[in-house]
Design a protein that fits this description.
Elements (H helix, E strand, L loop, with lengths): L2 H7 L7 E3 L6 H11 L5 E5 L8 H21 L2 E5 L11 H10 L4 H25 L1
Parallel strand pairs: 1-2, 2-3
Helix pairs in contact: 1-2, 2-3
C-alpha cells in the first residue's frame, strides 16, 4: 500500500486536496475516495508529472484525467489540474492550459468557473474558522 492509499484508508481522513501522483493506480484511488464519501475534495493532477513520459503513458494519463473528471462531477468534488511548476520555466500559459483541457473533453470556461466556486467555498470555510479563533 503506497502513501496515498494509507492517507485515504486511515480513520477519518481529513484533507482538502488529494494529490494523485501515481496515475497508474487511479482506479483504486477512485474506489478509496468513494468509500470515504466526502464532498468538496480537490483531486490534484500535475502536468509536470508526465513531462518525461512516453506517448503510451501520456495516453493513459489523459484517460485517467477524463475518468477523474467524471468522478469529481458525479461526487461533487473538484478536479484540480495544475502545471506543478517548480520554477518559471515549467509554467504553462492560459491558452495552452485551455487547449489541454479541451483534449480531456473539459470545457475550459466550466472548469475555471467550477474551480473558482470550489476555492470560494474553501476560503469561506477557513475564513469562518479563523474568526472563531
Amino acid at each position: 500500500m503506497d502513501e496515498s492509499e494509507t492517507i485515504i484508508s486511515s480513520k477519518l481522513p481529513f484533507f482538502d486536496i488529494f494529490y494523485l501522483k501515481n496515475f497508474q493506480n487511479y482506479k483504486l484511488i477512485i474506489k478509496l475516495l468513494k468509500k470515504i464519501n466526502r464532498k468538496n475534495i480537490g483531486v490534484e493532477i500535475k502536468i509536470r508529472d508526465i513531462r518525461i513520459c512516453n506517448s503510451y503513458d501520456v495516453g493513459k494519463w489523459a484517460k485517467c484525467i477524463k475518468d477523474i473528471y467524471k468522478f469529481c462531477k458525479l461526487t461533487n468534488n473538484q478536479i484540480i489540474i495544475s502545471s506543478g511548476a517548480e520554477n518559471e520555466y515549467e509554467t504553462i500559459s492560459g491558452n495552452t492550459f485551455d487547449s489541454i483541457l479541451k483534449i480531456f473533453e473539459v470545457d475550459p470556461i466550466t472548469y475555471w468557473n467550477d474551480l473558482e466556486k470550489w476555492l470560494y467555498i474553501k476560503s469561506g470555510i477557513y475564513y469562518s474558522a479563523s474568526e472563531k479563533g
